[in-house]
Input
Amino acid sequence: MTADTKDNKDAVEVKVTEEVELAAASSSAAAAAKHDKDEEVHVEVTEELDPELEKLLQTEPLQGLSDAEVNERLAQFGHNEIPEKKTNPFLKFLSYFIGSIAFLLEVATIMSAVVGKWPEFGILVFVLILNAIIGFVEEARAESALDALKNTLALKTRVWRNGQLIEVDSSTLVPGDVIALRLGDIVPADCRLLGIGVTGEETEGALQIDQSALTGESLPVSKKKGSIAFSSSIVKQGQMLAVVTKTGIHTYIGRAANLISITNERGHFQKVIGAIGNFLVIIVLIMVIILMFVLIFARGYGPLEAIVKVLVLTVAAIPVGLPTVLSVTMALGSNQLAKKQVIVKRLTAIEELASVSILCSDKTGTLTLNELTFDNPYLSNKGNTSTDFYGTGVPYTNEDLLLTAYFASEPGAQDAIELAVRTAAEERVEVLRTREGSGHQIPGYKVNGFIPFNPTSKYTEATVTDHATGKQFRCIKGAPQVIVRMVGGHDEASDAVLNFARRGLRALGVARTIDAEMTKFELVGMISLLDPPRPDSAATIKDCEAYGVRVKMITGDQLIIAKEVAYRLNMNRTILDAGTLADESLPVDVATDRCDKADGFAQVIPEHKYKVVELLQNRGYLVGMTGDGVNDAPALKKANVGIAVAGCTDAARSAADIVLLAHGLSTIVDGIKTSRAIFQRMRSYALYRIASTIHFMVFFFLTILIWEYSLSDSLILMITILNDAATLVISVDNARISKRPDKWRLGQLITLSFVLGIALTVISFAHFFVATYGLGYKITRALDCDHGISDTCDGFLNSFIYLNVSSCPHFVIFSTRLPTWLWKNIPHWIFTVVIIGTQVIAVIMSATGVFGIGFFGAGAIGWGPAILILLVSFVMTFFLDAIKVFVMRYWSFEMTAKLWPSPSRRRELARRKDRVIMLKRYKINIAKLRKVLAMANVIVAFKNAAKKKYISRGASAVEANVETIVATEAEPLVKN
Output
């Protein structure tokens, strides 16, 4: 190595070292700033009141409003209730006669009536009404979500009016009313606390209010004078007067109801069926116009005669059983899910759950237990002092800490923290776990006196006698800073409390006296409390990700708490303050990107949850939302699939599409797997049905146009209805469960259907020519066979074609049930028997003319031709399967965008290409960064072990994030 080279290398090393040290210093500063921020306490949701409204709130507390003022304000603001908005059931039922497929059915029905084909008319009317009834019964949810929200409101409340404290209906409250709030009360309207007791005395105390069902916060919130108590929250401790600020639809919960009422979008499934119907309508309209023009102007038919001709084509274009078969398939699937404690309220949610790619999960009560529990504490050493933390070197144990805290706990108190401490002690301390009875007696000890918690001292105290020694001592439990002060200071304990705070844990200090005079306190330790994750939550999130579903945590809790829970759930900790999404100056694309990349959101309100779901949907994702509280209801209804978890409120249950009966999210994985199996069955049927419909339309369009030949419309209806009825057994077929969210991929679906339909048309024409030119069957017009077999209609060609168009498309369903070769997954035996059995019956009908087939103008062709047609159809299934595999293998979104171009598809294609290029660039740059970090690690290893640890952790985090991005975004984009 030359001197110049060595000098250059040294210079590089020095430069890298300086940059690494600078980065470490910057990171330390950032971390310190973050810690300062993380130490924030509860962030109150506030909003500015209109100055005019503020004037109305200056009510004399112990006088209240007069009756005249109440009546005046009732006229101005309305009653304190959520207004109902009902849908007329009859109009709702009629809405199911609107849509592409319904339109085709209605046109065919009218045409049948015009030309006097009453049997066909009756069948079509029956199908129309049946589809409408199924849709009405399965989709009608009325406005139950709003009703449930109304039920969460308090019915009665105590209010000062005309100088008297009286009880009134909560619906009569108006802004400016002074109400009394006490332990156990449901807050009847949004109100501002006055810092005055119910009887008029000034108080410095606070109310403990449980608003978890509204905001998702896991702990009761302490609210003092000037704070806002929200309607439907519950007073857990304290009593105070408050002035009503907002009522009815203007309250916090009222805004949630308003979000529910304005959310009334078409479901994803309806959009898919609509798109399929629109495609068929366009094709049939083009064909009907061409036929009508040729028949009337080129061949001299009258309008009615021409309508009779095109009626066959119109009937052939209708996938009669499509809505019914898919609905029945989903209904049977809902029964399967019910056995797994997943209750489906809206059938189409099954199809949408299979396509969900992002699951937004509420934290409190869903991912966590919604109860404070004892976490890893800080334990001090026995004999410790404010200057000597080591003491005797023997630490206090968990049992010592919990028993001392139990002494200083108030028996029977339902405060969340007191309950958590008592529960932990009774489960973990031997003398408490093995005692007889359930009181507050402690074997071997006697509590001589107890001083409850008060806002001034901020601790509870007990004087205890130890029966074994006869000695007395005092125990205290309370705010950490107070306990540290009582023991004379303890920096190590203070650092532990700061660490707890940075991780979102609630801390309690515990100390006891060690001298005979009971004046000198020694620190026992610091209890840490947390609402912990459910035991199955981490595994459920991992399973969801294995099936291609990203889980985002959404909570009303503080950012630090959300990050700690995410850490314990093995989630990435890119948790954002949801308030950033409410910034109106933020471009929509930027907000959407933040929403897409974040692992969760903290400090959310109902509008934030709704916004998150909306932004993700605008990006093209199908979004699932889980929740249990009133605050979750708007987002549950907005999401493609709203999932209410066990123990949820009525409002959440009513707004949801799916209700889980088992606690936690573990059953969601069962729901995803089952829904994807159902989706595969539905998609295979839809592919078969559309291909068959295209086959019918194209084949009979050409035969009518060239030879004026077609089967009777009754015979086509019979084929469609009988084959679809048999296809209902697809609901029990074996299905392959996808490891990625299922999508209809309408471009692929319609392209493949069109290709298969044309291939089937070619096969049918081959049969047509064999029958006419090979077997010598006579081509007869459909009009000549309207009244069955006659001198002008022998029906042989009709039977020949009937058996072909019945069996060949029907066997295709063995192919469409899989995206790969049909033999890769064996169908269920019931499915196989029914499909083949249907065509065996068709063979018998065509060969012998039994079962009244002659009435439809089809004659007996004998066993030889009939069996041969069936065998050819079976063999052709493998030929069609090869076409399907070829199309599926070479299909891409880019191909769809070129074959079926639209502005939205072109924009999406451009976005995907840009995204792939960007992610590849990221991968290259990160690879370079890894090399730099590896060099930095080596250099820093010789200088500072702590810095080495920091950089290694940073490198690992970067690598993990890059691998996640590439795996979840780049690879699927390239494949699709």
